[in-house]
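Troubleshooting: if your tokenizer reports a length mismatch, compare your output against this known-good record of 229 residues.
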Amino acid sequence: MYNEQITDVFFDLDHTLWDFEKNSALTFDKILDKNQVGVDLQDFLEVYVPTNLAFWKLYREEKISKSELRYQRLKSVFDTLGHTVSDDMINHLAEEYIAHLSSENHLFPNTIEVLDYLKPKYHLHIITNGFQEIQEKKLKNANIHGYFQQVVNSEMAGVKKPNPIIFEMALKLAKTDSRKAIMIGDSLEADIQGALAVGFHALHFNSDNGPMHDFCHMIHDLHEIKTYL
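Known-good structure output:
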């Protein structure tokens, strides 16, 4: 069990509650077919998933812009596959991907069960590095927006997790302090180490079966949250 003084639970969204990889795959299935891009979906996804994570790391570290992220991750995948796609089509696919992604609403197993369990006991919030224009849509389309009092994103804060500023902003908006807060997320670097550095408690949802560590407790299914809170 965590400190009984905890009053506020902060969640990451993508890869933690909202099943990003599943929703992303469904979106690409639609837009690649619609735009007659002759590439096998599974071949595409096999390259895209790690490529996207790598470009998000660069974006998180302020090494590339949002527009560069959206273009370069697709350009890199098509280049790796040896599939020629025009810049115009890549930009079009990037726009379509963002437009359609938030309409998918698959959550990780037990998300609703755990949110229903937590809501009467704690103040619930979101801290996300995702883009402001689609994170709200994801929450609403997945019917979980009403669980959260504060939804803080990196565009509001002007920095991305693990920068302490975004965590401090979230605490201020939630009118609490880090000793009473716990962060639950999938990224060891962005969510766990970022939150711990500001004094949060933390619980690592290891949704991608990453290596074990000693920074905090780790879970592999969201229902395990009930063991700690």
